[in-house]
From TrEMBL, chains A, D:
Keywords: Nucleotide-binding. GO terms for biological process: Mo-molybdopterin cofactor biosynthetic process. The lineage of its organism: Bacteria, Pseudomonadati, Pseudomonadota, Gammaproteobacteria, Cellvibrionales. GO terms for cellular component: molybdopterin adenylyltransferase complex. This is Molybdopterin synthase sulfur carrier subunit. It comes from Candidatus Endobugula sertula (Bugula neritina bacterial symbiont). GO terms for molecular function: nucleotide binding.
UniProtKB/TrEMBL annotation, chains B, C:
GO terms for molecular function: molybdopterin synthase activity. This is Molybdopterin synthase catalytic subunit. It comes from Candidatus Endobugula sertula (Bugula neritina bacterial symbiont). GO terms for biological process: Mo-molybdopterin cofactor biosynthetic process. Keywords: Molybdenum cofactor biosynthesis.
Length: 82, 160, 160, 82
């Protein structure tokens, strides 16, 4: 199982803050999750067309970062704190 | 291996007291010669002055990122202690939003560490601001200027 | 012509309250987004830890020099207000000796102005420190490092 | 009349914090005052052999800075505040 999190504008766009995704053996990197979510069509496609960041287990990573069963994967827009 | 106590980092909805934080940073005297503090305030709304802010964050990641920024600062400069406070939730114009403090034997190190921490917090810590007006809500866009300000530190390292 | 009120600069024997100074710098909200403060402490005696300091200054010149440093800072960076407090007389190890605060719409300007002011204060304001031990008194020598730290600002101007 | 001030180590060395000096028509710059004080011999000669700064009317100046009757001229070592 993967835990998928969405924050800020991205969460508003996809209308969901958290979902659980069944682990599939062909999952190799964050790219595979992005592809799968994009295949759902709108609003995912639109939301993911923006400049978004991804973190695996609370660390920002490139989209080719390897993932394993049990990971927490978060998607969010560029940060605006401080 | 650097030791980092988590009470150096606080995320809270309530306001903070700079006097109290300064007092804590003074405790390291006489091993320090300098204390530098930065306080960030809510300003510059893209809408009108009746706007308020709402801040959210990715809590488990926030703590990791801020702890990592402090570690990086401690590896670069001989700072004795540092402190980060960031507020979340609803904030009005003019309110204190973020505090960074650092102390060190030498003043230039305290200045550099404090500015480094806030520059990296701005571009790496997972906080997001939303502006709320009577007409609705809108997410604040990330600023290119903040990204460029952070870049300075990389140039600084390469040329230093 | 810049207007400068003299209550921005205070020379005093008694200790100062950073909380109170920070509160004054907050008054300019919401026109400011950043407050940076520097507090210098008594440390690093060349003798032993039982040493105390005595500070004297050339009072009429001190005010002119500090007012001029603040004016220079205001010409370089858009700071709204700044504050300098310097203590004179007898001081013990670990005590607060000098405070510099600056506020500005943007954080990098507040950092630069605050550090510029203390760097120039260190090399231009007519204060002199004497160390007092049970064995006698000796004047503290000026530090080459402080002169070099100030030079950075000239290089900064030329290369910027 | 010129008002001459000495500070810190320099004051200790010459044993005087303030003196009034009669104006002389040949005075042109700070250099003339230094020459006159040096001619007094010790402890002035020794004190003035160190690296010292001079201010005319509360502004640090070069030693060729012009002076006029009524000026306040201060001599002191490099500053050590902050």
């Amino acid at each position: 199982m993967l835990k998928i999190l969405y924050f800020a504008r991205l969460r508003d766009e996809v209308g969901c803050s958290k979902e659980l995704l069944q682990w599939q053996d062909h999952f190799a990197s964050v790219n595979d999750i992005k592809t799968l979510l994009n295949q759902r069509g709108e609003p995912w496609q639109q939301a993911f067309s923006d400049n978004i960041l991804h973190a695996v287990n609370q660390h920002v990573v490139q989209s080719d970062h390897a993932i394993t069963d049990g990971d927490e994967i978060a998607f969010f827009p560029p940060v605006t704190g401080g | 291996m650097l030791v980092l106590t988590l009470d150096q980092i606080t995320i809270q909805t309530e306001d903070f007291n700079v006097a109290q934080e300064h007092q804590c940073l003074l405790q390291d005297a006489p091993n320090i010669g300098a204390i530098v503090t930065f306080t960030g305030l809510v300003k510059e709304f893209t809408k009108d002055d009746n706007t308020s802010l709402f801040l959210e964050h990715y809590s488990t990641m926030t703590e990791k990122v801020l702890a990592d920024i402090i570690q990086q600062a401690k590896q670069r400069w001989p700072i004795i202690n540092s402190r980060i406070i960031h507020r979340i939730g609803h904030l009005q114009l003019g309110e204190q939003i973020v505090f960074v403090g650092a102390n060190s034997p030498h003043r230039s190190d305290a200045f550099a560490a404090c500015e480094f921490i806030i520059d990296f917090l701005k571009t790496e810590a997972p906080f997001w601001k939303k502006e709320i007006t009577s007409e609705g809500e809108s997410w604040v866009d990330a600023k290119e200027s903040d990204r460029k300000t952070r870049e300075r530190w990389y140039n600084f390292i390469e040329s230093g």
